[in-house]
Specification:
Distance between the termini: 14 Å
Largest sheet: 3 strands, parallel
Order of helices and strands: EEHEEHEHH
Strand content: 5-15%
Number of strands: 5
Number of helices: 4
Structural class: alpha/beta
Length: about 100
Amino acid sequence: MSKPFELPEEMTIYSAVETRDALLAWVTEQSAKSAKLLEISGAKVREVDGSGLQLLASLSHLDQPWRLIAPSAVLLEAGQNLGLSAWLDEQIATS
């Protein structure tokens, strides 16, 4: 399996475009390598707002499956505050 994409410490409206561009470049690279499952690490996230969660939600439009690994407490709390706990739980890797 390939190395996971590391979400940045700040996932806010101020970093959304930069994070999106890096994430899309990584997805393209992984697709070229025929990666079957994309892993995205949320371990480093220390600040997140609706834009950051929207960016994660946009991954649902990918043709490849993905999962969130090691989400930080801040990321989980933001999801809970915005009513996305069930959706985030579905995305989190359990193994």
